[in-house]
Amino acid sequence: MAGGGMGRRDLLILGGATAAWPRVAAAQPSDRVRIIAVLMGFASTDPEANNRLKAFRDTLPELGWTEGGNVRIEVRWAGSDFEHGKDNAAELIGLAPDVIFCSPSTALDAVLSLTHKIPIVFVGVSDPVGGGFVTSLARPGGNITGFSSFDPPIAGKWVETLHTIAPRVERMAVLLRPETPISAPMERTAAAAGAVLGIAVSGAGVHNGDEIERAISNFASDPHGGLIVLPNPVTVTHRDLIVDLAAHYRLPAIYPFRYFPAMGGLASYGVDLIEQSRGAAIYVNRILRGQKPADLPVQAPTKFDLVINLKTAKALGLSPPSDLLASADEVIE
User: Which pTM was predicted?
Assistant: First the structure.
């Protein structure tokens, strides 16, 4: 969905979250000022993370919650450092918030290490069941619910799509953060998909910019390589570096979010986390009005957007098939 104002139809897109919407929206907040704690596992200067936070904040007034009126929002930025995130989570929990909104899994980890009582709504967490965050999508259990972003099978789609765009690629490196729970199953899925296509797929674990530079440089020393960039705070934080290195070494690469090709990356196939952040505001609203997180199913993505940067493809000497271009949600020229 495109950006802009959010109407009633947009607010009813959440599948299992929609049934009780009219009843819940009709309830009125109490006179007490509610506290929403927000923990973002990104730098405070990250424009994409700020866009997600803005989408969350902008949706709340449409649901009856006004900052400076009946709600107070406390935001902390944790970067990708777990210990820093844990310190920030402890500070937020000390405020006795009514609900916590967090993104991505590093922030969720930090919050869950300190509380299993305060309601939590998450966004941008891959495979929350496999990661051990919830019991199931339909019945998350405990004090937590939210919006999942990716499951392991998507890695096979990334391999197939990159192969379609760059058929001469014979080797693919999966750029990953080893500690992220979904990294290992995604790497296995990518390797299985690569084996079918005759492509050798290997993992490249990274934690910071220096390790990213070494990993890509070493991988690029042999020809016919391509990159699959997994979603995690490390790759997102260092996206400029990754896109620049891919261009420097002439490596075709596929990414999990649109903003990578928007800044010069080759292609992306993934979910819209800004829309999910709007959905998170709806879930926060429902919790503030009395519903329990355990009764709100975790929402899995139903739409994935394919974005291709045709200018970058041409610079790499690639000619994406016309049928793929026609099926793309966006072609950047």
Answer: 0.86
Rounded CA Rg of the chain: 20
Rounded distance between C-alpha atoms, residue 217 and residue 249, angstroms = 8
Task: Give residue 254's pLDDT.
Answer: 98
Pair (207, 71) in one structural domain? no
* Distance in angstroms (rounded) separating the CA atoms of residues 206 and 113: 24
**CA–CA gap between residue 83 and residue 79 (Å, rounded):** 10
Domain CATH number, residue 241: 3.40.50.2300
Do residues 21 and 166 share a domain? no
Tokens of residue 300, six digits: 């899995």
Of 124, 188, 179, residue with least CA distance to 154: 188
Q: Dihedral sign for Cα 77, 83, 88, 93, please.
A: positive
Name the residue range of residue 22's domain.
Answer: 8-149+271-295
Q: Is the pLDDT of residue 68 over 70?
A: yes
Number of residues that this document lists for the chain: 333
